[in-house]
Design a protein that fits this description.
- The chain contains five helices and eight strands; from the N terminus they run E-H-E-H-E-H-E-H-E-E-E-E-H.
- The protein is 34% helix and 21% strand.
- It is of the alpha/beta class.
- The chain is globular and about 45 Å long.
- Keywords: Cytoplasm, Flavoprotein, FMN, NAD, NADP, Oxidoreductase.
- InterPro entries: Flavoprotein-like_sf, FMN_Rdtase-like_dom, NAD(P)H-dep_reductase.
- It is found in: Cytoplasm.
Length: 190
Amino acid sequence: MVKIGIITGSTRDSRVNLQVAEWVKSIADKRTDAEFELVDIKDYNLPKFNEPIPAIMSQDYQAPEAHAWSKKIDSLDGFIFVTPEYNKAVTSGLKDAIDYLYVEWNHKAAGIVSYGSTLGVTAANNLRLILTVPKVATVGPSVAMSLFTDFQDMSKFHPAPYHVDSLNNTLDDVVAWSTALKGIRQGVLV
């Protein structure tokens, strides 16, 4: 059975991101085809990315805080990224968390749940592009939510019921791709 991490995309104290990630997990936990775990990037206390050499070259140069992050991402087979949109992009905290690692992301699948004033679509597209470098395959189905209709006062998450179907479509593909890519990572054709 594959392990899928639901990755938060914000570290701000006033974030609504955790509410969205918890909703994703509540839907995902009804499934029996994978294990799902909430992975809050804020818990890892990663400093701003400022490593002397790229992570692709050597993990020996990682900040000490990145070692636990590395172990967590390495233990997962796929991901659901929950990203807000800040200035038409992902947050710097999420970008830094991705940049700290390289091989730990390789040949895994990801789905995207985004939200923002314009549904977080630009952030989702930005994230798809970012994830190509560490060889993460992003699935086509995604969930895009509005700060104006899926949140009360932009602070309390109340998703429209139809988002459940979109999320299940995303989860279907992430589980399928994660299962296939796990075989590839193990050198086995499935």
